[in-house]
Amino acid sequence: MLKIILKNLWQRRRQNAWLFAELIIVTILTWVIVDPTVVGIYDVNTPLGYDADRIVRVTVSSYPEEADLYDPDYATAEAREEAYNALRAKADRLPMVEMSSYLSEGIDDYRTANYGLAIGDEAIDTVVGAIYAMGITPGERFFTLYGIESIDGSPTAEQLDNGLIGVNDVVITESVDRTYWPDRRGVKGKRFVSCGYNGDTIYTNVIAIIKDFRYHAATQTGAVGLFCDIYDYRSKRQVALTLRLADGVNADDYVRDYGDAIRSSLRTGNYYVSEIMSQRDQIRYIDANDGTTSRRNLHFFIAALFLINLIVGVTGCVWLQTGKRVSELGVLRSYGALKSHIMGMLMGETGVMAFIAFIIGDVIYLQYALKEGLSIGNENNAGYIRADSWIYNFGEHFVIISVIVLIIILICVAIGTYFPARHVSKIEPVDALHDE
């Protein structure tokens, strides 16, 4: 069968020239569309690295003085302190809540600050570099709350939550550790060096290494550090209570079923609940707000529209070609060729043609990729540390997307060829040859 297919393609090379050229162009266009789409899908489906399904964010605000419900009796520092403590106690008693915490900056929160640990030239165990760093408040059980795990041999999440992190200490993720200390295990002796405002050299000691997590859902991994940050919530008009739900309780369902009860229970002094949102909803909100969702949906829409047009285009071209070969196919049928043989031959011809066109188109796109690069999606850490991912390995990236592009083209060509091939294979020999 393969010999017949190759022979037919060579004999009909002039007739197939347009379809062949079209398939080369289609390969290049498919690369342009599929590359960012696949990277976007990978971004969305990369594990977050923490228990997002069990986290609920509760924003607690304070009535302004001009509000009808404002009570001046709760405006003193002592009253605010009492109300503040009562909020936390009430949150811990909410149904199906395992623990609660006041966090100055939660995961996936735009307010998370970007602190660089950088500059200097020190001993071998001290690195010069920069990391995205999040401030966490002592005593607020950040690691336990989000279910972030330490690597083997490093202090546990419980130990880190119990006051292990001090000033000038930092906890780093595995990605940071692999980047700066690829040949060393453990935390002993590892530190960063930076320059203080007055020009003094400041050393930041690595006290623990945790598993990667995505501090923002749009980023690809968690190359991040966490350091001690003293934050006085009671001076703020708005605080964030973060709830960790019991095992097996879904945060989206919990917000829907208990949202009104939470608002009623946490009304304390001049404090009231202004917003309740599951962590998943928080991710969806931020992705929508910064345009990540719309960009991703646009890629999906363009890809779907392109594939539909590709199938329709191939169907039209093959239908036109097969219409000119009715007599030839009638002769084959008169010599005993089965319908399945005719269909297999026609689909094999377009499949082989598509494969050869793909190779040529792939090589052409490779020249562009070598010059301009491949899609990297939402890059990690604004250029500080790149994720340990196939996305940044040019060879691996090119091979993976090439295979996907080839599969898509072959599937579309197979679908586009099937219907005209099926139609022409049903023509009886006597009908195909009646004009001969």
Write out key terms for the chains shown.
2 domains, 49% helix, single chain, four-stranded antiparallel sheet, 436 residues, alpha/beta, 13 helices
> What is the overall silhouette?
elongated
Total number of domains:
2
Q: Segments where pLDDT lies below 50 for 5+ residues?
A: 110-121
Assembly classification: single chain
> Quick check: average pLDDT?
78
**How many distinct beta strands?**
10
| Straight-line distance between termini | 26 Å
Strand content: 5-15%
Structural class: alpha/beta
Discrete helix count = 13
Helix and strand succession? HHEHEEEHHEHEEEEHEHHHHHH
| Alpha carbon gyration radius | 31 Å
| Fraction of residues in H or I helices | 40-55%
Widest sheet: strand ordering:
3-6-7-5-8-4
Let me know the largest β-sheet. 6 strands, mixed
Structural write-up:
The protein is of the alpha/beta class. It folds into two domains: 2-46 and 291-432, no CATH class; 52-289, no CATH class. It has helices spanning 2-11, 17-45, 77-92, 142-146, 157-164, 174-180, 251-265, 279-289, 292-323, 326-334, 339-372, 394-425, 429-432; strands spanning 55-62, 97-102, 126-127, 132-136, 169-173, 191-195, 201-210, 224-228, 238-245, 271-278. The strands form two sheets. The protein has a six-stranded mixed beta sheet with strand order 3-6-7-5-8-4. A four-stranded antiparallel beta sheet has the order 2-9-1-10. β6 and β7 form a beta hairpin. α2 crosses α12 (394-425). The radius of gyration is 31 Å and the shape is elongated.
In short:
This protein is of the alpha/beta class. 49% of the residues lie in helices and 14% in strands.
